[in-house]
Amino acid sequence: MNGQAHSDPLVITLIIEEWGVRRILVDSGSSVEVLFYETFKRMELSDDILVPSTYRIYGFNGTVTIPKGEVTLRVSDRGGYLDTLTTFCVVDVTSPYEAIIGRPWIAGIKGVASSYHQRLRFPTYKGIAEVVGDPQAARQCMQADAHINEERRVRQRGEKKKAKESKVAEELQKVISQAVMAYEAQGSEPS
């Protein structure tokens, strides 16, 4: 691997409905295949083909994403060894990836994914075929993801600070109102 770190995620290119989709994260921890809405639109697909989804997606950090719907699309490799219909959950969230291929799809092709070796291997009628990962795309996605997460953290800190300032202002207003009422009550008492 030319001395590079072996901790890069496995990011591959596959053909989805005639489109070369370059930044596909192979995530054996994911129980669903995901197509990001931005990619869906770039593929010139219409929302009319989306089937309502019956479930929600829970991220590892507990966040809940409600899918825009599901769509079944043809997925193939450039070598002509892989041709499968895959149901993707379409989600409208920001991601440096264009899609995520998960455990069900990997198992469906009887594949073995290795981020260490940057390979996805699977059996074919001609023997074992493989899709090689793109470490450069993986690093770019990791950097973009870190940037997206940092922006989210900054925004959340700003929202928390604003909420805290608002609460302090409310409490101060309450104290002032009580002081004014007490002062007015003192002034209206007979001497």
How would you summarize the topology of this molecule?
Layout: E1 10-16, E2 19-26, E3 34-36, H1 37-42, E4 57-58, E5 64-65, E6 69-76, E7 83-91, E8 99-101, H2 103-108, E9 112-114, E10 119-124, E11 127-132, H3 135-188
Parallel strand pairs: 2-8, 3-7
Antiparallel strand pairs: 1-2, 1-6, 3-8, 4-5, 6-7, 9-10, 10-11
Distance between the termini: 92 Å
Largest sheet strand order: 1-2-8-3-7-6
Q: Main sheet, how many strands, which sense, barrel?
A: 6 strands, mixed, barrel
Helix vs. strand class: alpha+beta
Radius of gyration: 26 Å
Annotation keywords:
elongated, 191 residues, 3-stranded antiparallel sheet, alpha+beta, 11 strands, 6-stranded mixed beta barrel
